[in-house]
Amino acid sequence: MKITDKEFYSKYTFVKNSFQKLTDEVILIKKGESNYPKLLAKTDEAPPYLFAKGDLNLLDQKSVCVVGRRNATSASMKNTERLVKSLIKRNIVVNAGLAKGIDTATHITALENGGKTIAVIGTPINQYYPKENRLLQQRIEKEGLVISQFPPCNAIQRWNFPTRNGVMSGLALATVIMEAGKTSGALKQADYSLK
Fold this sequence. Notes:
The chain starts with a helix and ends with a helix. Helix 3 runs parallel beside helix 4. It is α/β, with parallel strands linked by helices. The protein is globular. It is built from seven helices and seven strands; from the N terminus they run H-E-H-E-E-H-E-H-E-H-E-H-E-H. It has a single domain, classed as Rossmann fold (3-Layer(aba) Sandwich), CATH 3.40.50. It has a seven-stranded mixed sheet with strand order 1-2-6-5-4-3-7, sandwiched between helices.
């Protein structure tokens, strides 16, 4: 496939501009550096870079990943709240994606009960998905940590979300699946955890 100079410089400019739009609050962590999560670095899914916003000290603390369905039952939501409260009482950081349902319940319960939480997002660090969790993501940036393995020039793609499950698993000592459907991303998370 041939690419013209004009096409090359157009793409280069787009990528350069996307990085320049990142605020000073965004920290780039390279695999092999001292602040790269040690557990994650040992996994096959460890990305070469992480984009982070928030309290990097949370990467050095014990964490448990809590995942489940977007359309979770009320019983699963209550069990999630109960589990997260128990974990944070023991000074364990919780991590989750930022989807509706179990992920959202995990973060909100942690924040509202004085705990610490890490949101591992399937979008670039400067984007919000789903849109209704924008305020939650911004709150986690201030009170916890948001990380992404996707550069700011990446488009939001559906395959990013199962890919980021490898990072979620790699950060945690354990993964707890609160509820999962047959084609759930939580089952992908289970695969990564077993590895």
